[in-house]
Design a protein that fits this description.
The protein is of the alpha+beta class. The chain contains 2 helices and 6 strands, in the order ββαβαβββ. A two-stranded antiparallel ribbon has the order 1-2. A two-stranded antiparallel sheet has the order 3-6. Strands 4-5 form a two-stranded antiparallel ribbon. The protein starts with a strand and ends with a strand.
Length: 89
């Protein structure tokens, strides 16, 4: 399995220690005893959904991506992708 372990920060966040690939997370779920784990959605996180608003005026995803290549974070890592998993206990 593949896991991104960024040196320093990921998308300017200092609390991200590792980011597993979808297949890696499925493997971890099986190893943790979950049954029938499956990934039901996998899509890029967009700047339309994660952005500053009237209720949240702080920096958000647009400020954390490379301004010249939004497929990369400010540090040069792949941009965030959201995955949704379902598993049974």
């Amino acid at each position: 399995g593949e896991v991104l372990v960024p040196e320093g920060r990921y998308a300017k966040m200092n609390n991200v220690w590792f980011l597993p690939s979808g297949p890696s997370l499925l493997s971890w779920l099986r190893k943790a005893g979950f049954r029938s784990p499956r990934m039901v959605d996998f899509c890029p996180t967009t700047t339309e959904e994660q952005r500053a608003t009237d209720w949240m005026r702080f920096h958000s995803l647009p400020e954390f991506l490379d301004p010249d290549d939004p497929s990369r974070t400010a540090e040069g890592h792949p941009a965030p992708i959201r995955a949704v998993f379902i598993a049974e206990t």
